[in-house]
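Many introductory courses stop at the sequence. We go one step further.
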Amino acid sequence: MPIVSISLNDEILSELDKLQSSMGFSGRSEAIRAGIRAFVSEEKQKSDLAGDIHAILLVVHNDEFDHVVSGITHNFEDLIITHLHSKIEKEKCMELFVMNGDAEKVTTMTKDFQTNRNMDTVKLVAL
């Protein structure tokens, strides 16, 4: 089996260790493989989206990156039916987008958030 090395900051490593323990994984590698399998499965499901769809996009980020969210959001105003912004912790914000439109554009918007290192959580649910 090939070996892949990754670097993790202390916060993510701590979260990984908690998941390993609470979910009963025998080691970090097993937990990481399970996470990768889930990610690959979710991305395959998204790649099957076509035509006009309804979707919900959840984004969590530090409030200092509100301007980044605004920049991405402005590029997809034609998709967004409702946008809810809520402070969920001290410096954490949650954005909830209800969208309707072309699946490719929904996927592009999602990827724009996913590939931005300033976003903590990005989750798409296609309806």
